[in-house]
Request: fold
Amino acid sequence: MDKITIKVEGMTCGGCVTSIQKALGEHDGIGKTAADLDAGTVDVEFDSTLIQRSAIERAIESAGFDVPAQ
Ligand code: 9UX
Reply:
């Protein structure tokens, strides 16, 4: 598994954390996720043979959050 940290804008409560982690968990190739509300980041473990960073960022945006240019 690779591990990346993605900056995410718009997480304002524990429910946001849950919904991001739930949205990511539905994708093949994504392992453990950990959203940090205070830091505005999400750590994502993923299998790079199954999913790419760009798709992970799109999944976060589809869940209703903004991923600024990193
Ligand atoms: Mo709580 Mo986070 O309603 O969008 S889930 S602010």
Notes: The mean pLDDT is 96. The domain at 2-62 is CATH 3.30.70.100 (Alpha-Beta Plaits).
